[in-house]
Every structure is written in C-alpha cells, then in structure tokens.
Design goal:
Elements: H1 8-18, H2 24-33, H3 38-48, E1 74-78, H4 93-96, E2 107-109, E3 115-117, E4 120-125, E5 131-136, H5 150-160, H6 169-172, E6 181-185, E7 188-192, H7 200-203, E8 230-236, E9 240-245, E10 264-268, H8 274-282, E11 288-289, H9 294-300, E12 306-312, E13 316-321, H10 331-338, H11 343-351, E14 355-357, H12 380-389, E15 396-403, H13 407-420, E16 425-432, H14 434-439, E17 446-451, H15 457-465, H16 484-494, H17 499-516, E18 519-520, E19 523-532, E20 535-536, E21 552-553
Helix pairs in contact: 1-2, 1-3, 2-3, 8-9, 10-12, 11-13, 15-16, 16-17
Length: 556
C-alpha cells in the first residue's frame, strides 16, 4: 500500500510500531480512525511490525459453516423496553437495543475497539485533524423507500449539536459547531472542527448517534423509519417490542440474499428481577438475556446448554457527588469518601470478583491510555481526619440515590453505607426504580450511575467531566464539576494521536480525579452475552449493544 495515500500520522505510527513503541492493535485502531481500510491497515502493520511467529487462528464460537445457516424463525429475548422519542436523547444503552435494528450508524466499532465505515463508505482527515471529509454510502434506502443521502447526515449532525434537542453528543462533539457541517453534494460532506480530534469516527457509533431521515418529526415510536434490517410492528414501553424483517435491506448475508436471517425478534421486558430472567431462560421462554447481571452469569456459567461470551470492559457504576452542592464543594470531603471504600469487599459483593478494582479516575485497564496509579486505601481514620479539617468534626449525613433494579449498584451502596460509618459518614439510601433514577440522575446530591463501556478513555472523560465553551457543565456532567486543568488536558488528549503521549496526558487526568475529582469508581465490570446453543451469529460487544442483524437459529 502506498504511504502517499494515507494520513502522514499513520506513516509516523507505522514507524513507532516498527520500533516497538506501539501495539499492533493500537496501530490498527489509529489507522482505522484516520480512514485507512482494514486491508490497508493490516498491510501497513505487516510492513511496520517485526517478524513474529504465526499465531493460531481465532475462531468465533458462535460461527457456523455457511451451509448451516437457517433462515426464518423468531428469536425471543429479555431486554428492557424503554420509553423513547428521539435517539439523540438516549442516555442509556438499553434504550437503543430495539432501535438499533431499525436505525443504523455511520460507523461501527468492533469488539476489538477498531472502528469501520458503515453507512459511510469512508472518511478522510486533514493533517491538523480539524477538517474531516465524509463519503456517504450509496444505494441505501430507508424503510419508506426514501434514498439515504448527505442531507440526512447533515440533518442528524444538526440534531446532535442542537441545545434544544439536548443530546449527550453535544458535549461529546464539543469540537464541532452546527455551522461547521457543510454539504458538498448528495453523497459527500465536510466537517470543519474548531479543535482537532482523533475520536470523531468512534463518536459516530455512540448509541445516541442513530441515523434518522431528514423528514423526522421528533418521535421514533410514531415514525420508525430507518435504514436497518427490521421494522417495528409493536412497541409497548415496559412490556414488549416486536421487530419484523425488511425484504429490501441493503446488506446481504453469507448466502448472498438480503439480511436479516430471522423473520422476527421479540423483546420482552420481564420486570426487574434477574431471578425471573434466569427462570425464563432456563425454561426456554426466552432464548437470550441482554445485559445479564453477574447473578445470572453464575446461574448458567457451568450449564452446557448455553453460550456464555465474556468481555472485560470499562463499564462501571460511578458514585458521583454534586461538586456544586454542600458538603461536596470541599475537595477534602470528596476525598474523605474515597478513603471509605473497601474496594476488595465491594468488588466481591457487587460483582463476585468478576471485574477489576478501579482507582476513582474512570479510566479502565482495558483502555490503551490507562496508567496504573494505585487507588487510595481503605482508611476510615484518614476519612475522619479530612472531614474534621473541612469543618465536619462530628461527621456528615448524606443521602445516596440508588436504583433498586441495578444489583451491582445496590450491593455497592450497602457495602459503602456500612464501611463509611467508621469514617464519619452517615449514608441514608434513597432507593428507587431505575426509571425514576434516570428522571433525575443529574440532580441528586449523591448517586450511583450506570456508565457503559467506551474503548478509549478520553471519550468518557470529555463527555462526563468537562463543560461547554462558556464553562457550564455539559449535559452529562452529572457532578456539575468543572476543573480548568482537567478540561485543558481533555482537549489535549482529544487531539493527541501518539498513544504514549496520550497516556501521559490521561495519567495526569487520573491523578486529578483521585486528588480532587467528584467521583468514586471502585471497580470495572466484566460483561457477557448469554443465549441458548440454538442461537448463532450474535455479535460480541463490550458495550453490551444488542446487534442481531446476522443472528439465526437452528431449525426447530
């Protein structure tokens, strides 16, 4: 592959790879983000990496020979069926499960963290990473027969960047303004960024970045018109969703015929008790459970009738406090709470040790920027001393909001309540359903929030802990915490391609979080895909996305 056809920073990265300063996976991820095809990236990696013994082929345990694929049938699975109107406002992965079979994304990030074109054919970044040219894939139609063009892409960018819509992507794409989106022709557009970023292609696979037609009126339940392989025939929030295959989907399966293989997907809510999900799975009332908790994993891990695919992730449950409200305005009080965390105990009771310990920075060992900084130890005496220095010599009473149907959060909250008493904190639990929690998740003085996996640390740190151009907290900055040094480092990280240099920046951000940040992160979670052996073609996803475009079932 000619080096003149790729971004010069890819050529530099290849040289770093050749010298042993970058892993092959990090190189492939970087090359893909800068618009190099999978074939081209692998060719460059082969040129750049030193010779190594050939590794045995890795096989997908769900894969099967082409002749074995069966078309037709209904797949029934347990999933949350959430209230929904505008995908750009999705604040939870589970909201996207039904809809990602109806609406699709411009890019797709695979289980290895490498981002590929999807509704885009390709993209190209300028040398300074501030101009991005996007080429829209031709020959795709929405389910109402309308042709997918650049007009639809421009419309969606305008929705994501609208303060009125209120999408988390507005904070995540802080490098782009509405007037920076330029349509060139029917299948090309150019983005003019205000600051450089390497992460744009990955942001386009955020679960809130589903592509809608430019005619969208504001409610997907009334206008379920997408480019995906299914259409919605029934949608009852809190109960069920029925998806039916399209006959004219734009992608073909292994047999050369249009996807999907399944005729129908039925998603049933099944309440909030994981023991009921396990019973339904074992009695074959459902064939798959989406986002299974650790208790369900325990119930099937040794059962040969199920496929269990594990993944290490950056998903976690973040305890965050409102840094703009008492008693948390004082960083000593925030740090005192961190000294009340018996992390080994929390990992054991919340996750049965199916994860790793966190250091309160919201940066996971699975992310390439992670710096292994030791977490603060469990030290109630130190906590009491810090509270006294902050003017709380008699201790402090606080209220912790927690969702009753998130078992990991409940176990974490109970363990912390017990252990923090010795450190001077009286923690009263405010327990509520997850639906109620999400209604006020940015308002609680103190809460434990579900945060999903993201392949690169700056993707989380920017959207969750920085603000807008005026210094106001972003839509997902639930701690209402603005730290100028942290925000400056976040901007630097966004535009830094060299992994080692980016890791150095993120290491500084980790330390700021540990020293004065508004969050406690005691663990990062393992996740699983769990389904019966009769089901095949489920796409692995550390994000716990439910992607069933190529799923199929054995003949009954």
């Amino acid at each position: 592959m000619s080096t003149e056809k790729v971004h010069p920073l890819v050529v530099e990265a290849r040289d770093v790879l050749r010298q042993g300063g970058m892993s092959r996976r990090d190189f492939l991820r970087l090359a893909a983000l800068l618009g190099v095809s999978a074939i081209g990236a692998n060719a460059l990696a082969a040129c750049g990496s030193p010779a190594a013994p050939t590794a045995p082929a890795v096989t997908n345990p769900t894969a099967a020979p082409q002749a074995a694929i069966v078309r037709g049938g209904t797949l029934t699975l347990r999933s949350r069926v959430e209230r929904a109107d505008h995908p750009a406002r999705f604040s939870l992965v589970s909201q996207s499960h039904p809809w990602r079979h109806v609406f699709e994304y411009l890019t797709q990030t695979d289980a290895k963290g490498i981002t590929h074109p999807y509704l885009l054919e390709n993209w190209e970044a300028s040398e300074d990473l501030k101009t991005w040219k996007l080429k829209v894939r031709q020959g795709i139609k929405f389910s109402n027969g309308k042709t997918f063009t650049a007009d639809d892409v421009v419309f969606n960018f305008q929705q994501w960047l609208s303060e009125e819509v209120g999408s988390a992507l507005l904070g995540q794409m802080s490098y782009l303004r509405p007037d920076g989106v330029e349509k060139v022709d029917d299948y090309n557009l150019t983005l003019h960024l205000t600051s450089p970023t390497i992460f744009l292609p990955e942001h386009l696979f955020h679960y809130a970045a589903a592509i809608l037609p430019a005619t969208f009126g504001g409610d997907i339940t009334r206008e379920p018109i997408g480019t995906g392989p299914f259409t919605v025939k029934e949608y009852v929030p809190g109960e069920r969703c029925r998806l039916v295959r399209r006959e004219d989907y734009w992608q073909n399966g292994e047999d050369g015929k249009p996807l999907p293989y399944l005729d129908e997907i039925v998603m049933v809510h099944l309440g909030d008790d994981p023991s009921a999900w396990l019973s339904a799975l074992k009695s074959n009332q459902v064939e798959m459970v989406v986002e299974p908790p650790v208790t369900l994993w325990e119930g099937v891990k040794d059962d040969p009738t199920f496929t269990v695919l594990p993944a290490e992730t950056s998903a976690t449950r973040v305890l965050r406090v409102r840094a703009d409200q008492e008693p948390w305005t004082n960083p000593k009080v925030r740090q005192a709470l961190k000294y009340c965390h018996n992390r080994e105990k929390i990992l054991a009771v919340a996750l049965r040790n199916q994860g790793v310990i966190g250091n309160d920075s919201h940066v996971s060992p699975v992310q390439p920027e992670f710096v292994d900084i030791a977490p603060l130890p469990f030290d109630p005496a130190k906590s009491k001393a810090l509270l006294a220095e902050a003017g709380y010599g008699d201790g402090v009473t606080v209220e912790l909001a927690v969702a009753s149907d998130w078992p990991e959060s409940m176990a974490y909250a109970q363990a912390l309540k017990e252990d923090a008493a010795a450190g001077g904190f009286t923690i009263n639990l405010k327990v509520m359903p997850a639906t109620q929690y999400w209604d006020g998740w940015t308002d609680f003085n103190m809460g434990i929030t579900w945060w999903a996996h993201r392949p690169l640390a700056p993707m989380t740190l920017t959207v969750a802990y920085t603000g807008d151009a005026e210094g106001k907290p972003g839509a997902w900055n639930e701690a209402h915490w603005i730290d100028d040094e942290f925000s400056d480092l976040a901007k630097q990280a966004e535009g830094t391609l060299d992994v080692a240099a980016r890791r150095e920046i993120v290491g500084k951000m980790e330390q700021i979080m540990i020293d004065r940040g508004p969050i406690c992160v005691p663990f990062f979670m393992n996740v699983w895909q769990i389904y019966t052996k009769a089901v095949h073609g489920v796409e692995p996803s550390p994000e716990e996305f439910c992607i069933l475009h190529r799923a199929w079932k054995d003949k009954a």
